[in-house]
Amino acid sequence: MKIGLSLPLLVLSSLAPLGWSQATTPPPAAATEAKPHGPEAVAAQDPNRVVATINGQKITAKQVADMLRSLAPEQRKQIETNLANGVQRLYMIQQLSEAAHQLNLEQQSPWKEQLELNRRSVLAQAYVAHLSEAAAKEPTEDPQKYYDAHKAEFDNAKLSGIFVPFNPPGTPASNSAPNALTEEQAHDKANDLEKKLAAGGDFAALARAESVHQTASKGGDLGTVPINDPSINIPAEIKTAVSKLQPGQVSEPIHIQNAFLIVKLESRETVPFDKAKAGIETKLQTERGQSVVKKEQEKYAIHVEDQDFFGSTPAAASGAKVPSLQRPAPAPQSKP
To answer: Which letter does DSSP use for residue 115 in this model?
Structure first.
């Protein structure tokens, strides 16, 4: 659960070193005219501005903004990863559907039945969203009570790390990075680094020299992590290792996916309730909404009375789950 904190990029599976490019100096502010950013902003300032041509037709900023406005947030986010391609697809769908309407295809089978099924599906999703939103507005558990009962979730650990990656067993030589290590070689190197640290070696200096990770240039600084937050995907091996450390101590090499990791606990602190309260309230509201939706769906679990009719496949067994009508929840976004 994110409690208004800055979560670092603890991407433990992304072990290839990153290239760094030198930033160019931006022109003075006075010499740069501010331009509107985003389709809506451009459409608001200049709605008739032609932004594309498709099949000989000029497409204006307002037309694009109107297309995007009809999309659900997750659909729009996906479209905007390649806006030009997305606009092309939306415009084509718009034009082809209009051509189908001119031929009265919506009144012909099987299109008529499919349109009705889609209509019902959208309405079912709308009802589920209504249930969830209404439940989320109801009073929840006392945030202070939750905080007191889940103190470990608010334990923040400031960490540094040294990553020693290796090629997974069976990796073809053609796919191996230059100077890539085998798992045994990486283990030996990590053990050697542990000995140097035990002898008084400087962790940040060794991280800069030996770690193969985007944090190496920062002396291995992984930032501050809510180490016990169940909503943050941190490997159990790392959680266990960190739980045994006192500030200033260094772990033994930890075997993670395709690498060995040595972690240093720089400091540990507990987020105070006043800073955690807003995040707790959001979490409890979300959980209440999800609970109501789950109960609604469970009402429609099927109990097969005639096995011969449905067949003997596992999916048709008594008590089969009702397909979820909820849209996938967005992924937690981490602040760098």
So the answer is: H
Q: What are 195-226's pLDDT values in tens digits?
A: 999 999 999 999 999 999 999 999 999 999 99
CATH topology of domain 155-271: Chitinase A; domain 3 (3.10.50)
Q: Is the peptide bond before 110 cis (omega within 30 degrees of 0)?
A: yes
Which two structure tokens, joined as six digits, stand for 176?
């191996």
Question: Cβ neighbours of residue 11 under 8 Å, at least 6 residues apart?
Answer: none
Mean of pLDDT values over 59-73: 91
Outline where the chain has alpha helix (H). 39-45, 61-69, 73-79, 83-102, 111-136, 143-149, 183-198, 203-210, 236-243, 273-298, 307-310
- Write out the H or E segment, with its range, that includes residue 50: strand 50-54
Model confidence pLDDT, tens digit, residues 263-284: 999 999 999 999 999 989 988 9
Q: Which one-letter DSSP state was computed for residue 4?
A: S
Tokens of 190: 């990590």
Exposed/middle/buried for residue 99 (C-beta within 10 Å: 0-12, 13-18, 19+): exposed
Each domain of the chain, given as residue ranges in start order, spans 40-103, 155-271
DSSP state of 151: G
Which residues, including other chains, have CB under 8 Å from residue 334's CB and lie 6 or more apart? Answer: 7, 8, 9
What local confidence, expressed as pLDDT, does residue 108 receive? Answer: 95
pLDDT in the model for residue 93? 93
CA distance 289 to 138: 9
| Model pLDDT, residue 1 | 45
Write phi, then psi, for 263 (nearest 5 degrees). Answer: -110, 140
